[in-house]
Amino acid sequence: MKHSIAVVAAVVAVGLSFGVASAKGKGDKDLKRGEELFKQHCAVCHPEGGNIVNPQKPLGKESLKANKITSWKDIVKTMRNPGPGMSTFDAKAIPDKDAKLVAEYILKTFK
Ligand code: HEC
């Protein structure tokens, strides 16, 4: 009997944590969308936030900072007007709203 109470408690705990996770709502959805866009447009050259074309310029915070990229706006600027070896992503390829989501995903994800 004790055992089944523990099982019920565990199930309730898992259920609760799912509830909390989904209650976070929009932020999570934005991050997910950013991730999808990143995989679609950027991951070929930046797998796991790296850089296969120019390994000196990965997407981790330190590298970005060294190149004065510190906010999502700076990342969007890079997409619109990239350095050598990177494809250009204009507003037709990735609209501003989506570009912001990709940028925020990068800032939140890669260390
Ligand atoms: C064709 C390969 C390629 C693709 C696709 C690509 N990049 Fe890049 N990316 C590069 C290269 C090469 C650089 C280094 C450019 C330079 O020397 O300034 C770079 C640099 C960057 C930097 C600056 C990194 C730093 O450490 O200074 C950011 C931010 C960035 N890319 C974001 C993106 C995003 C966001 C996407 C997708 C929308 C993307 N890239 C797609 C090749 C690519």
Automatic annotation (TrEMBL):
UniProt KW Transport keyword: yes
Signal peptide: 1-23
Keyword set, alphabetical order: Electron transport, Heme, Iron, Metal-binding, Signal, Thylakoid, Transport
GO cellular component assignments: plasma membrane-derived thylakoid lumen
Keyword Heme on entry: yes
Record localization: Cellular thylakoid lumen
UniProt family annotation: Belongs to the cytochrome c family. PetJ subfamily.
Name this protein carries in UniProt: Cytochrome c, 1 heme-binding site
Species the sequence originates in: Geobacter sulfurreducens (strain ATCC 51573 / DSM 12127 / PCA)
